[in-house]
Amino acid sequence: MDIAVNWQETEQHLTELRQLVNERLDRLTDLPEGCPDRLKSAMRYSLLAPGKRFRPLLVLLAAEACGADPEEAIAPACAIEMIHCYSLIHDDLPAMDDDDLRRGQPTCHRQFDEATAILAGDALLTLAFEVLAKHVEPPDRAIRCCRVLAEAAGPCHLVGGQADDIQAPTLAPSLELLESIHRRKTGALIECALSLGAIIGDAGPEVLNGLQEYGRAIGLAFQITDDLLDLLGDEKLVGKRLQKDKKQNKLTFPAMLGVDRSREKIERLIEAACRALEPLPIERRHLVALALNLKSRTH
Amino acid sequence: MDIAVNWQETEQHLTELRQLVNERLDRLTDLPEGCPDRLKSAMRYSLLAPGKRFRPLLVLLAAEACGADPEEAIAPACAIEMIHCYSLIHDDLPAMDDDDLRRGQPTCHRQFDEATAILAGDALLTLAFEVLAKHVEPPDRAIRCCRVLAEAAGPCHLVGGQADDIQAPTLAPSLELLESIHRRKTGALIECALSLGAIIGDAGPEVLNGLQEYGRAIGLAFQITDDLLDLLGDEKLVGKRLQKDKKQNKLTFPAMLGVDRSREKIERLIEAACRALEPLPIERRHLVALALNLKSRTH
Predict the structure, then answer these.
(1) Are B57 and B18 in contact (CB under 8 A)?
(2) Distance between CA atoms of B126 and B136, rounded to whole angstroms?
(3) Other Cβ atoms within 10 Å of A138 Cβ, number
(4) Do A127 and B31 touch (CB under 8 A)?
(5) Which of B37, B38, B46, B122 to mutate to probe the A interface, most A CBs <10 Å?
(6) For the segment B227-253, what is each residue's pLDDT rounded down to a tens digit?
(7) CB B163 to CB A119 under 8 A?
(8) Is the full-model pTM beyond 0.90?
(9) Phi, psi (5° rounding) for residue B221?
């Protein structure tokens, strides 16, 4: 590593950015008349619950690394969190993963009802594109953001990954299938966060590709730590029911590779992520620190 | 009326446009690897089922009325049909209206399963924005399309209207509430169809406003005919279960006003729709014919 990384400094910066994201999510969901109270409450209940804001932070860090101001990137940062939140609400539904706890509180359909949860998810998904269309300037940048977000959230990535994840217990288990599910279900949106930041920062193709490569590597590393947390984590810290993968016979990295080889894989992915940034003419300090910190993720 | 309207000619034109829409919807959902087969089948099962294509036809007619070629408007036409179709799939779910028949065939969750139906809806909603971002040029026109579609489909309109529609049996019935639900649940997307056509046709504010006023009037007229069809229609022609509104104690126009006054209201709305177009410097022949034909709607 040819740069000095200071996790305390990065952590402090992330706290400030997280606050910016939370404030803006609050404002963007302060919806006018026309939106029924119960629907608005459900959207805000799930969206404003304490979350890591991993994806929006990546948008902001990538934009900053390319020299943009976080304020320029806050709309795509909020849009991607809305997409992530909608996908959690729908994934938690009884017909899907049937979860009762999320971000340390009852899931949306438990707190409200199933119809409201379906509609709150639909509303957040739609609002994400309204936010991009309304708050990103100029139009060609806004439309590029719409395109990468719609692709990452669409049937060939986020939704397709979730569909295969549900079907996975009935399919022949393989590392290839597992990686393909994770690449689409979690990886695509994380890679998209880096693309959004790069678009806002007017990055050229080399920087865009490098940031995407970083995104793919930390996306998979993030998911493997998720699998490990499900197996070994503390339910209070993680804020959702654990050991569900095993009960639901889900395909996971610890199940396929064992815990030790899963941890080795995380190490290798983090190294690859940092390496992808090395040749780029950007300020990569915080992105490197964030990747290195994934190893010690507890929630 | 100061123009000659020939329904046979308009009908012939609509048949050609409908074919264009159907062909393009087919092509746009011929999704690449990454989209699981079952998800793709469910999306196409619902989207390609025989539908009136009312909203996409309005996009194309409005664009044509402003002098654009239908080919320029086909992407927004398909996008709005995807949004409409997703909303039907989710509305039909057991937790919502719990319907088993739609467009003359089993509803998506009956034909596949609930999880697949939720995901197929999510995928179509997302794909609509991808289609706009990819296939509308130039970027400022594409982003205007994204914005009006996201607003019309969002929590203050389509989703909000559906949320209130579900809650309606528990609320105090009033004509005001009923109109507010319909304006958001059905009207907003129909008005949006006209806006999309106007945007593609580079319409100025006067034409845009006039087309939107036409859209609001026929949107409400369309919904009242829907209520009447639920009460008096032929299930085979309509392609969905009828007399459900009464069973579910839904707020409807015939229930509030009676059949005769509902029919009078439709007449008045159609007149208002035609009047809104009169002063506009556009070729309004087909739009007028379409509005006048709403009276004899049987499906």
Answers:
(1) yes
(2) 16
(3) 10
(4) no
(5) B122
(6) 999 888 777 777 877 777 777 778 889
(7) yes
(8) yes
(9) -60, -40
